[in-house]
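Thread: quick sanity check before group meeting

JM: Hey all, I'm pulling together slides for Thursday and realized we never actually wrote out the predicted structure for the chain we discussed last week. Dropping the sequence here so it's in one place. If anyone has concerns about the input, flag it before I start.
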Amino acid sequence: MTYTKMNIMGQLPDRQTTEPGRPRPVRVIHISVQPKTWLGKLLATILAAALMLIAFFLSIILFVMIACIIVVAIIYVIWASHRAGRRPPDQVIEAEVKSRDID
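JM (edit): ok, ran it. Output follows.
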């Protein structure tokens, strides 16, 4: 059982279609946040400088935290290797040597 083009088109709801060779128009929304007045430009500059300063301080804090973790890890490795390399104190074990006679 084959469907013809007319039979399939007859089942679709009635809608107006555009011409097949013509693309449908696309809606593009442009949002501009550029300030237009001198006060807006001043506030935008102050806000940008404040955000950059906050980012700079956060990067310094992150650097210090990572450096502290690395220093603690290095100190731990040195301490663990030093502790493992120590010799136990000299201990004297007293014992008798028994001889066995082999016949």
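AS: nice. Residues 60-85 form one domain. The chain has two helices and no strands.
JM: adding both to the slides.
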